[in-house]
Structures are given as C-alpha cells and as structure tokens.
Specification:
The chain is mostly beta strands. Helices cover about 5% and strands about 55% of the residues. Strands 3, 4, 5, 6, 7, 8 and 9 form a 7-stranded antiparallel beta sheet that branches. A two-stranded antiparallel ribbon has the order 1-2. The model has no long low-confidence stretch (mean pLDDT about 85).
Length: about 220
C-alpha cells in the first residue's frame, strides 16, 4: 500500500520483537513513510514492459499461437514541502499500475465430426464454440488452445501531514487510499471455466494512521 517513492525505510524483525506487535508468529515488517521538509521536493517516474521487449510464451510458441498482449506500466509521482515553515509539513504520493498479463489456456470443444453429425437444431450451439486447433480426444471432443491477456488496474494515493509540537515531539497523520480492479478470463482458483466467461473484481483499501514521534533529525 506504500509507493516506493513514499518509503523512507523499512525494518524486518524475525524474532525477539517488542510486545507492541502482539503474540503473532513469523516476522514483523515495519515501514516508515517519508515526511515533508522545509524545502519543496518532487519526483516523477515511469517503468514499463511490453510485448516488443519480451519473447512469446513457450506454450504459445509450441501451439503456434500469436503472442498475447503484454503491458506493464508503473508510474507515479511524489511531492513534499512546508505548509508552515519549521512547523507543519506535507508529503503526497501517487502510484498507478496498469497490467495486461499474457496467458495461454487449453480447453476442449466439439470436434468437426460432432458438428457435422449433430441434428440441425443442435448444430448452431456447437458452432458457437471455437474451432478446434489441437488433436481430437474422442467422444466428440477436440483440443483448443488460445492465448489472451487479463487486464488489471491498481492505484495508491497517500497524503501525510506532520506537525512539530516542540523540539522533541512531533505529531503525524497519514491517509492512504488504494482502489484496484482485475478482469479475469477462463480458470479461476484452479476451477476450469469457459473462456468466454469473464469476471471483474474490484476493491479498495483505506487506511488512516496517527502517531506521536520523537524528533531525532534536524529538518532541512
């Protein structure tokens, strides 16, 4: 939920961590987000991958399928600075991720003989299936291989306000909002599905954090 440019440091504790983390097994990950300073600072970034830069999937090559669309665009910005010099500071960050994840899938469809021998009333329903491009499997079925891409979209917004109380104590508040969505085709959690079925899932996460901190670094 934290953009890379909004992260100041992180700590991983695998054992002997403080009682504040409760009685939970495994490691504890603590993330410290950046705060604004007396100077204005900002960044912009963009990371991308696409089909031109990457090779086709091995299974797609093996089955002579076209290369499915692949896109990965990770972009965002961050800006921070003073609201009141030496007293109040802000830091805002945004990161967006747009994905087109390439996949290959194998399923079964009616073979050519079953389409031809089916009664006239049933034939339109069988012809609604794609034409087989793999070997016949018997019992009126044949293999069908296809390549496609699942699109997804993820966003992360974060705003942090810091207030200096005195030379030793500071108060901060941080609000984060992360809406996301993914459109999936075909298998879902290991259960085979008809490839014409798609399922759109969208969700959002909001967090609000308030804390009192000890000031150990001089503001620049």
């Amino acid at each position: 939920l934290v953009s890379v440019d909004a992260m100041q440091e992180f700590r991983i504790q695998t054992s002997s961590f403080a009682p504040e983390f409760g009685r939970t097994p495994g490691g504890q990950v603590s993330i410290l987000t950046r705060s604004g300073t007396n100077g204005f600072h900002g960044t912009l970034f963009e990371y991308f991958r696409n089909s031109v830069l990457d090779a086709n999937d091995w299974f797609a090559n093996y089955n002579h399928l076209p290369e499915p669309e692949e896109r990965q665009n990770d972009f965002g910005s961050a800006v921070g600075g003073p609201v009141i010099k030496d007293k109040t500071f802000f830091f805002f960050s945004y990161e967006g991720l747009r994905l087109r994840q390439p996949l290959t899938q194998k399923t079964v469809v009616p073979d050519s003989s079953s389409r031809q021998q089916a009664p006239a009333a049933i034939r339109p329903y069988l012809n609604a299936f794609p034409v087989a491009n793999g070997p016949e499997l018997g019992t009126g079925l044949a293999e069908f291989n296809v390549s496609y891409s699942n699109p997804s979209s993820l966003d992360a917004y974060s705003i942090r306000i810091d207030q200096v109380i005195n030379s030793k104590l500071g108060l901060f508040g941080r609000y984060s909002y992360s809406p996301s969505s993914i459109d999936q085709r075909g298998p879902y959690f290991g259960t085979p599905r008809v490839l014409s079925d798609t399922e759109l899932t969208s969700f959002s996460i909001q967090t609000l954090t308030v804390g009192l901190t000890e000031i150990i670094n001089q503001l620049r």
